# Entry
Amino acid sequence: MSANSTRQPGATKPARPASAEERLKELAIVLPAPPEPFGTYAEAVQTGNLLFLTGMLPTEGGKAKFIGRVGAELDVETGREAARLAAVNVLAVARAHLGSLDKVTRVVRLGVSVATSGDGRDLPKIADAASDFLQDVFGKEKNPCRLVYGVASLPLGTPVEIEVIFEVLGIRE
# Structure
């Protein structure tokens, strides 16, 4: 059969990748209401086809769910849980801004700050929780570049703060 041939009757269509909204349903992930800002700033700013999201914390119900530094009060696994929750909050804010996560065409950059006791050898493992979550939702082909660094402290005493830049469909007026 040549490349120009038409498909035979009864042949199955090639599977198209699931959309971000479909993946959320498949993964049984229900996004919370977007967190309210803890200061005077916008949580999302779009310029052209780039959506910049503020540093997002691992909060639930307006309060920090995790408090402490990785390597002191918290272990790496707890840091990973905090990073995943912060990523969930990122998607809640992005969806509220865009109307649908299907408008995301690429995750451009993921920045992960981790409050540590000074030993930063496991920081990539913590950041991987946010990276893996975003990959589960958007697909491997939309993986971002990433910056991970350790800090002495973060707002509300949380162990993790993440910031994301998305490329999105359309240009917001």
About this structure: Strands lie at 44-47, 50-56, 59-60, 63-64, 104-115, 145-151, 160-168. The chain has one domain: 20-25+41-168. The radius of gyration is 18 Å. Confidence is low (pLDDT under 50) at residues 1-7.
